Amino acid sequence: MKGIFYLFIFTPFMKWRSTRLNSWLRRTTGLKSLLRCMRRLLKFYCRISMNERNTMSNLQLSGFMVKPSNGLSRQQIVVLQTVLLRYREASLQALQETQDHLQAFLEISDSEERSLQREEYRVDLTVQEHEKLQLQRIEQALQRIRNGSYGYCEFSGEPIGMARLMVQPTATLSKDAQETAEES
């Protein structure tokens, strides 16, 4: 029983932690030792750094498998989420300004003035379409953050990378997948 418990519970954790703790766990025997071991692990868990704690929190209860890391820490995801929220605010503001400008154009009664501003109206419509599309991408990225799939390529499933996400936080494809998509 103890051997099975060790294999399915502690083996993934030990791959992640130091060999010193691994050898200590092998020496423990019996239920009391197992409880002591769990208490020590809890104390040990409380002492480890935030980065390691984030990795430990990815242990899944079903099978106790470690979730593959996309290379983004929680702090980086929070930064990217903040950037996305600011982009969303700016996009909503630009969309509102465009709406106001289009509404002002429709209220113009003079036909000469209206004909002069027709080109500006077309530009405003293009800007409005672009802002709506950008807002949709931002909302999708925020949804991916909420469901935990943010930072992974939709095509290959590989991590996208922090550098690419800082430049384009709404990215859904890795650099290689994007190049492949652009070629075809």
Characterization of this structure:
With 184 residues, the chain is mainly α. The chain has 2 domains: 2-57; 74-183, Up-down Bundle (Four Helix Bundle (Hemerythrin (Met), subunit A)), CATH 1.20.120.910. Helix content is 73%, strand content 0%. It has helices spanning 2-16, 19-27, 30-47, 50-57, 74-106, 111-116, 118-147, 162-167, 175-183. The chain is elongated and about 60 Å long. The termini are far apart.
Instruction: State the helix count.
Output: 9
User: Which band does the percent of strand residues land in?
Assistant: under 5%
Give the CA-CA distance, first to last residue. 56 Å
Q: What's the architecture of the largest domain in CATH terms? A: Up-down Bundle
Helix content: over 70%
Coarse shape: elongated
Instruction: Give the overall average pLDDT.
Output: 70
The name of the CATH topology of the largest domain is Four Helix Bundle (Hemerythrin (Met), subunit A)
Tell me the radius of gyration.
26 Å
Contiguous uncertain segments of 5+ residues: 1-31, 41-68
CATH homologous superfamily (4th level) name of the largest domain: DksA, coiled-coil domain
Number of individual domains: 2
CATH class membership of the largest domain: Mainly Alpha
Task: Record the SSE blueprint.
Blueprint: H1 2-16, H2 19-27, H3 30-47, H4 50-57, H5 74-106, H6 111-116, H7 118-147, H8 162-167, H9 175-183
Helix pairs in contact: 5-7
List its salient traits.
zinc-finger; about 180 residues; zinc; Znf_DskA_TraR; single chain; Znf_DskA_TraR_CS; disordered N terminus; about 75% helix; Four Helix Bundle (Hemerythrin (Met), subunit A); mainly alpha
